[in-house]
Design goal:
Blueprint: H1 3-14, H2 19-32, H3 38-44, H4 62-73, H5 77-87, H6 90-102, H7 113-125, H8 131-144, H9 148-158, H10 168-184, E1 188-189, E2 192-193, H11 206-216, E3 221-229, E4 232-239, E5 242-244, H12 250-268, H13 271-288, E6 301-304, H14 308-315, E7 322-327, E8 331-338, E9 341-346, H15 357-366, E10 371-382, E11 386-387, H16 390-398, H17 403-409, E12 412-422, E13 425-426, H18 432-442, E14 450-452, E15 455-458, H19 461-473, E16 478-482, E17 493-500, E18 507-516, E19 525-534, E20 539-546, H20 552-563, E21 566-570, E22 573-576, E23 581-585, E24 588-591, E25 599-602, E26 605-609, H21 621-631
Parallel strand pairs: 6-17, 12-14
Antiparallel strand pairs: 1-2, 3-4, 4-5, 7-15, 7-16, 8-9, 8-10, 10-11, 10-12, 12-13, 16-17, 18-19, 18-22, 18-23, 19-20, 21-22, 23-26, 24-25
The structure holds adenosine-5'-triphosphate.
Adenosine-5'-triphosphate binds next to strand 6 and strand 7.
Function: DNA ligase that seals nicks in double-stranded DNA during DNA replication, DNA recombination and DNA repair.
Domain ATP-dependent DNA ligase family profile: 405-534
Family: Belongs to the ATP-dependent DNA ligase family.
């Protein structure tokens, strides 16, 4: 497929806010895509170069892009920077530069999706000496083959800042629409709308409605059966190429199909693969997709509870029974084991196996089962000194050499709390009771760097309170409360797992902009613009500025990190790639027309940088609304 086709869709997506229209645009793109491009398309449409589980990083900053633009067009870097300042956006700037250039030269070869993908892969793979200039040449090659508008989106994609408002849910719905709309059926048959109301039958009597319609269109229909869920069979009637169903069931079938696509994505973390399977193998193919060892899945997240009573209300299953566990303060890890191969992944799906060889060995010693995926919290724990602060632990993640020395300096323990996969079987559809008891049965308690999380099952509030107190006395962050009868939902923040902590609610927000300081602080970026996540569109929305509460050391550290993420400069202000996530405390949430979220934080201050989080973990606008509601 020509890249220009995708660009047409980007423009349409950019110009509408309607989720229905957006779904329609993306699904058309999927339908018209040659099969071999579907995989690439499913990533690029979300502004991602690769599927998430591969965890490939382009590692491109604005400096490299400027060099690449200069190389591709022969325009001096200084001029590129000037145009950038002028336009305020590097994508817009490159569009103008390429436009001017095109008037003087003949168009070169056509840009295709496969060329874009090929070069993105080479960029991510470039390592070692000479890798920078290799990356520049690869981007320059793309810009050199691009029409002005294409160049704009290439630059935005490479900067991971596409800004067209396409989130996960939209891609899922578009896959359903593109490949399964005939299963959802038409609401019209020969111009005659078949709804419950029109045939005058009570909606309760769906079965009868089905029979009724079947009788009416019998001669020309062919009955097909599709097993859409674990709990039943949906019948669809095909008539002269068009599938027909009773309108009352349309929503139900559509929702089930969305559930099937979502599940396929949950187990694969790869929309490219999901789209391909949907188009080639249909519903059945998607249902057969499953977790694969060494391909990390996104973790299930918790909600916050304000009191023990609320927590029990949220997670209590039969007779109010709930599972309580210590909330350890460390790094969430997902550990995959196949025989003697073990890999450790973070919740951002990054692999950190090499940094923790002692955990690899401990897992091999503690688990005899051939194939497992377990989840737990990796905590810095020194038998002499007790729990180590998170900052120490994060040093171990960054350290790629002299690992032996680190093992002694910063010893770790992993507290396991979930079992996701065991010997060929995914357990995510099983309830926690089954997952936890199975996890218990497969841990040999011989190595103390692998432990089971402290766990109590009770419906008794007093017992729960003392467990909570015990966790705090032992310097844990708080406790988690979990519903024992619920499944594991990858990538979701579910209401049936909640955390209870004594501290005031903080927010995890992305830094999306900043300002150069003045006087003594002129070389440092400060006054950080914060943003929360609009989950529907996948867009970050500003929610205020954080200007106080930093030590000089913190400012310097943050500046060093953020400097590489500048995507636009305007006088003293800079726009940043949203890569740095911070935990922010505040006095109050206020309504404010000044920021895109419609809210502002009063007296926001930095608690800590959340190095293990990505943009997907940023607190949502819904959560802000909820907190705001609670305040008043
Ligand atoms: P927080 O900032 O409170 O750590 P978070 O956004 O990192 O929250 P949540 O899902 O909201 O993640 O809170 C649960 C987190 O607590 C998990 O991601 C995990 O890293 C950690 N954790 C520690 N102990 C447990 C446990 N026993 N069960 C589940 N999660 C645990």
């Amino acid at each position: 497929m020509d890249y220009s086709e995708l660009v047409k869709s980007y423009k349409k997506l950019e110009s509408t806010q309607s989720t229905l229209e957006k779904t329609e645009i993306i699904s058309k793109l999927f339908i018209n895509s040659p099969k071999e491009d579907l995989d690439t398309l499913a990533h690029l449409i979300r502004g991602k170069a690769f599927s998430e589980w591969k965890n490939l990083d382009l590692g491109i900053g604005k400096k490299l892009i400027i060099k690449a633009i200069s190389k591709a067009t022969g325009i001096k870097e200084e001029k590129v920077k000037k145009e950038w300042k002028n336009k305020g956006d590097l994508g817009d700037a490159v569009e103008v530069i390429v436009k001017n250039k095109k008037q003087q030269t003949l168009t070169t070869k056509k840009l295709t999706l496969s060329l874009v993908q090929e070069n993105l892969e080479k960029i991510a793979g470039a390592e070692g000496s000479g890798s920078q200039s290799k990356k520049i040449s690869l981007i320059a090659e793309l810009i050199g083959s691009a029409e002005p508008e294409e160049a704009k989106y290439i630059v935005r994609t490479v900067l991971e800042n596409l800004r067209i408002g396409v989130g996960e849910g939209l891609v899922r719905d578009a896959i359903v629409k593109a490949f399964f709309s005939e299963l959802i059926g038409l609401s019209e048959l020969d111009g005659y709308e078949i709804t419950g109301q029109q045939v005058g039958i009570d909606k309760q009597l769906l079965g009868s409605i089905s029979e009724y319609r079947l009788n009416k269109v019998k001669e020309k229909t062919e009955l097909i059966e599709i097993d859409l869920s674990d709990d039943g069979i949906s019948k669809l009637w095909k008539k002269e190429g068009a599938d027909v169903f009773i309108t009352d069931r349309k929503k139900e079938i559509e929702d089930r199909l969305k559930g099937i696509v979502q599940h396929a994505y949950d187990v694969s973390t790869d929309f490219g693969e999901v789209a391909e399977v949907a188009s080639k193998k249909g519903v059945q193919g998607l249902r057969e997709m499953d977790i694969e060892l060494f391909r990390p899945i996104r973790v299930m997240l918790a909600q916050k509870s304000d009191s023990m009573e609320d927590a029990f209300e949220a997670v209590g299953s039969e007779e109010g029974l709930a599972a309580l566990e210590y909330k350890y303060d460390g790094i969430r890890v997902q550990i995959h084991k196949e025989g003697s191969d073990v890999k450790i992944f973070t919740r951002r799906l990054e692999e950190i196996t090499d940094q923790f060889p002692e955990i690899v060995n401990a897992i091999k010693d503690s688990i005899d089962e051939e194939e497992v995926i377990v989840e737990g919290e990796l905590v810095g724990f020194d038998p002499q000194k007790g729990y180590l602060p998170f900052q120490k632990l994060s040093k171990r993640i960054k350290r790629k050499y002299n690992i032996r020395e680190m093992i002694e300096k910063i010893p770790v323990t992993v507290y396991l709390f979930d079992l996701i996969y065991c010997n060929g079987n995914s357990l995510i559809r099983q309830n926690l009771r089954i997952r936890w008891s199975k996890l218990n049965s497969l841990i040999n308690k011989i190595d103390n760097s692998v432990e089971l999380a402290s766990h109590l099952e009770t419906s008794d509030l007093d017992k729960a309170q003392s467990f909570y107190q015990k966790a705090l006395d032992e310097n844990q962050e708080g406790i988690m409360l979990k519903n024992l009868s619920k499944r594991y939902k990858p990538g979701s923040r579910v209401g049936y797992m909640v955390k209870l902590k004594p501290v005031m609610e903080t927010l995890d927000l992305a830094i999306i902009g900043a300002e150069w300081g003045e006087g003594r602080r002129r070389d440092w970026l400060g006054s950080y613009k914060l943003a929360c996540m609009n989950k529907e569109t996948g867009e970050l929305k500003s929610i205020g500025k954080m200007a106080t509460g930093f030590t000089d050391e913190q400012l310097e550290e943050l500046t060093n990190k953020l400097e590489d993420m500048i995507i636009q400069e305007d006088g003293r202000s800079v726009k940043l790639k949203p890569k740095v996530i911070v935990e922010v405390a505040y006095e109050e949430i206020q309504e404010s027309p000044k920021y895109e979220s419609g809210y502002a934080l009063r007296f926001p201050r930095l608690v800590a940088e959340r190095e293990t989080l990505g943009t997907g973990d940023v607190d949502t606008l819904d959560r802000i609304r909820e907190l705001y509601g609670k305040q008043s």
